[in-house]
């Protein structure tokens, strides 16, 4: 088997929250944004990351790229652990990992022209390039992402949201990275534009042999683009499997609940018959539940779940649950009864 | 459906043009500024005052040092403004030509205002942006230092400085420069805090752009609107401070003069019926302040921080 491009082991991100008005000697609270995530990413593969808001998707992405301090291991294909690198050593890898952001307009500096924005990573990593050459490469990249190269002197506010996202993608691609982390790249776009941007990403991935980490909360979008999907809940991995397998045979009760909530474009479809409602809200990451983090909302929770955190199983379809298995009719019925009551 | 041939052709021509020129946010702001009548009036006044300061001396018949012995001792009757003897604005108590004195005062006052504001812009912007961008302990230390400096009554310190180290122009610049950047650094820091979590800054950090380059390239250009507005409002403030100091007799010294010194002299002799000694410096003083305030207002409207 080939070496994975990125091998993440027990990645944790904990923020220290100093409550307001606290004195400096008070111990800050620990906010566990990402609590021990393991996954691997193979070259040329797309890993989708899904989960509800506040489950640590974006923090995970920012930890991989070194924007927030993290602990654990993230081994790059050449054996270096990205997390333990000093900022100077990390510089070499920054051109290999690029990021596409959620809000297309906010991720572009309004005072810079498109040409300057796209060229910035290039001039940062290759400061010796001649100006004409930089311009040449920027124009070539604009063409590649479907922008007119003659608009190189325009400013971000003169573009539509979809075009701005293309600019963001061009900026990420200009240094020929091996991995692009897309942090909800289409959440802020219209559905028709979403499709364009996603198809552009898929096409570019095939052409350039990129790996993608694709973060989204839209499950159908993730299914469309991903080879494998990882489900996060409160900073923990619930389930990782190939996209087809996960969508067809979800094993974890949380994944089942998520999938059953996907809207189906069919007027005759009765959501009441198949949607499994989840009780309550996401618990606070300041004070996560003991044992399995999902047990407070889980229909299968038993005493064991409160004391023992389930480990991620091995194999192709990895689940972190004491009682994995497909959803049963009785569970649906019971969930519905508690909802009604 | 009928497609208009000429329109489609011009569109095609535009799309195939080599490089389309973009409309920068600055160009937008400039257009809005030029449409603002009050601001344009203020700008014209300022330009005229500036021209007066630069070229005013070439129209003067008398230099600012000469004493006109014809009017000396009878200023109230002979020293009034007249075109015949070349004293366009009349003379001061000693028989010096008030026109060339006003030109000189305008030069000095404008210089004090602009130098003070320039120090504030450069030091305050860089200091505030650095504190805001790096945050944490650096920010705490830098801003507490500003707080301490701000808590000192600056007029008192300025007067002490001038008394202790002698009354000179350089000491005045130093004193004004020392205090002017404090407010600016606070404003800039606040703006930086709201900017630094924007995604484009994060994008630059993710690619590994070094911190100082992020400040220069991404933060400062996005702050300049606020800074420009505040700077135009700071210039009259500096002029006012200098005038106050000069009014007290501690500012610029003879033979140099400034608006404040001239107004002070004019106010001293107002009882003897030489009203022009007060009126002319005061007129220039007032219109310049109005000019700066209008321009500042216009800039604020043009560079509306609400981004569209």
Automatic annotation (TrEMBL), chain A:
Q: Which UniProt keywords apply?
A: ATP-binding, Nucleotide-binding, Transport
Which GO biological process categories is it annotated with? peptide transport; transmembrane transport
The entry lists its GO molecular-function terms as: ATP binding; ATP hydrolysis activity
Extract the SUPFAM superfamilies matched here: P-loop containing nucleoside triphosphate hydrolases
UniProt cross-references to InterPro entries, sorted A to Z: AAA+_ATPase (IPR003593), ABC_transp_ATP-bind (IPR050319), ABC_transporter-like_ATP-bd (IPR003439), ABC_transporter-like_CS (IPR017871), Oligopep_ABC_C (IPR013563), P-loop_NTPase (IPR027417)
* Cellular component, GO, one term: plasma membrane
Where on the tree of life does the source sit, at the highest rank? Bacteria
Pfam families cross-referenced by the UniProt entry = ABC_tran, oligo_HPY
Can you say where in the cell this protein is located? Cell inner membrane
Membrane topology of this protein:
Peripheral membrane protein
Q: Where is the ABC transporter domain?
A: 8-259
Report the main location listed first in the record.
Answer: membrane
Family indicated by similarity:
Belongs to the ABC transporter superfamily.
What PANTHER family does the entry give?
D,D-DIPEPTIDE TRANSPORT ATP-BINDING PROTEIN DDPF-RELATED, TRANSPORT ATP-BINDING PROTEIN
Q: Which NCBIfam families match?
A: oligo_HPY (TIGR01727)
Q: What is this protein called?
A: ATP-binding cassette domain-containing protein
Task: Identify the species of origin.
Answer: Paracoccus caeni
TrEMBL record, chain B:
* Organism encoding this protein: Paracoccus caeni
Keyword terms of this UniProt record:
Cell inner membrane, Cell membrane, Membrane, Peptide transport, Protein transport, Transmembrane, Transmembrane helix, Transport
Presence of the UniProt keyword Metal-binding in the record: no
Q: Which family does it belong to?
A: Belongs to the binding-protein-dependent transport system permease family. OppBC subfamily.
InterPro entries per the UniProt record, alphabetical: BP-dependent_transpt_permease (IPR050366), MetI-like (IPR000515), MetI-like_sf (IPR035906), OppC_N (IPR025966)
Location (main, coarse): membrane
Which is a Gene Ontology cellular component entry for this protein?
plasma membrane
State which residue ranges cross the membrane: 40-62, 108-134, 146-165, 171-188, 223-250, 278-299
Bilayer topology annotation? Multi-pass membrane protein
Localization annotation: Cell inner membrane; Cell membrane
What range(s) does the ABC transmembrane type-1 domain occupy? Answer: 106-293
Question: What Pfam families does the record tag this protein with?
Answer: BPD_transp_1, OppC_N
Cross-referenced SUPFAM superfamilies, in alphabetical order?
MetI-like
Claim: Heme is one of the keywords in the record: no
GO BP, sorted A to Z: peptide transport; protein transport; transmembrane transport
> What is the name of the protein in this document?
Oligopeptide transport system permease protein OppC
PANTHER family attached to this UniProt entry: OLIGOPEPTIDE TRANSPORT SYSTEM PERMEASE PROTEIN APPC, OLIGOPEPTIDE TRANSPORT SYSTEM PERMEASE PROTEIN OPPC
């Amino acid at each position: 088997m080939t070496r994975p491009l990125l091998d993440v082991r027990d990645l944790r991100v904990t923020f220290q929250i100093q409550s307001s008005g606290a004195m400096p000697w008070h111990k800050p609270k620990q906010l566990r944004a990402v609590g021990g995530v393991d996954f691997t990413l193979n070259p040329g593969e797309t890993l989708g990351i899904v989960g509800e808001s506040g489950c640590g998707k974006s923090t995970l992405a920012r930890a991989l790229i070194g924007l927030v301090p993290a602990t654990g291991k993230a081994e790059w294909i050449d054996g270096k652990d990205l997390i333990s690198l000093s900022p100077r050593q990390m510089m070499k890898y920054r051109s290999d990992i690029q990021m596409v952001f959620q809000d297309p307009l906010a991720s572009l500096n309004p005072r810079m022209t498109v040409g300057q924005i796209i060229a910035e990573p290039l001039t940062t990593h290759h400061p010796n390039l001649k100006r004409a050459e930089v311009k040449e490469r920027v124009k070539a990249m604009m063409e590649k992402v479907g922008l007119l190269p003659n608009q190189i002197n325009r400013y971000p506010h003169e573009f539509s949201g979809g075009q701005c996202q293309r600019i963001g993608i061009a900026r990420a691609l200009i240094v020929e990275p091996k991995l692009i982390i897309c942090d909800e790249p289409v959440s802020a776009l219209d559905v028709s534009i979403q499709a364009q941007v996603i198809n552009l990403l898929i096409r570019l991935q095939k052409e350039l042999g990129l790996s993608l980490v694709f973060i989204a909360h839209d499950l159908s979008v993730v299914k469309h683009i991903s080879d494998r999907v990882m489900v996060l809940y409160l900073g923990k991995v619930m389930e990782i499997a190939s996209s087809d397998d996960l969508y067809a045979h979800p094993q974890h009760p949380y994944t089942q609940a998520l999938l059953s909530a996907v809207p189906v474009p069919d007027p005759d479809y009765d959501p009441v018959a198949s949607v499994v409602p989840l009780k309550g809200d996401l618990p606070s990451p300041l004070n996560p539940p003991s044992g399995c983090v999902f047990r407070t909302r889980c229909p299968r929770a038993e005493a064991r779940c409160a004391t023992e955190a389930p480990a991620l199983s091995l194999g192709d379809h990895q689940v972190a649950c004491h009682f994995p298995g497909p959803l049963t009719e009785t569970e649906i019925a019971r969930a519905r009864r508690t909802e009604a009551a | 459906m009928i497609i208009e041939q000429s329109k489609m052709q011009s569109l095609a021509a535009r799309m195939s043009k080599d490089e389309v020129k973009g409309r920068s946010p600055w160009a937008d702001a400039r257009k809005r500024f030029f449409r603002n009548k009050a601001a344009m009036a203020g700008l014209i006044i300022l330009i005229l005052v500036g021209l007066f300061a630069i070229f005013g001396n070439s129209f003067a018949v008398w230099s600012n040092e000469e004493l006109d012995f014809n009017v000396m001792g009878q200023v109230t009757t002979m020293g009034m403004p007249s075109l015949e003897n070349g004293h366009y604005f009349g003379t001061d108590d000693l028989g010096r030509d008030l026109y060339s004195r006003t030109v000189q005062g305008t030069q000095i006052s404008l210089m004090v205002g602009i130098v003070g504001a320039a120090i504030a812009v450069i030091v305050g912007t860089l200091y505030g942006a650095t504190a805001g961008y790096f945050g944490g302990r650096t920010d705490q230390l830098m801003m507490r230092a500003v707080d301490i400096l701000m808590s000192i009554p600056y007029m008192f310190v300025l007067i002490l400085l001038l008394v202790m180290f002698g009354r000179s122009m350089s000491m005045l610049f130093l004193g004004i420069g020392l205090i002017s950047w404090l407010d600016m650094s606070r404003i800039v820091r606040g703006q930086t805090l709201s900017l630094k979590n924007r995604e484009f800054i994060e994008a630059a950090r993710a690619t590994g752009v070094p911190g100082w380059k992020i400040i220069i390239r991404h933060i400062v250009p996005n702050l300049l609107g606020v800074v420009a507005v505040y700077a135009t409002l700071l210039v009259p403030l500096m002029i006012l401070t200098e005038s106050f100091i000069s009014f007290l007799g501690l500012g610029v010294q003879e033979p140099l003069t400034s608006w404040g010194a001239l107004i002070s002299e004019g106010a001293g002799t107002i009882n003897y019926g030489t009203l022009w000694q007060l009126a002319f410096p005061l007129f220039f003083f007032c219109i310049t302040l109005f000019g700066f305030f209008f321009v500042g207002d216009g800039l604020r409207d043009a560079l509306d921080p609400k981004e569209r």
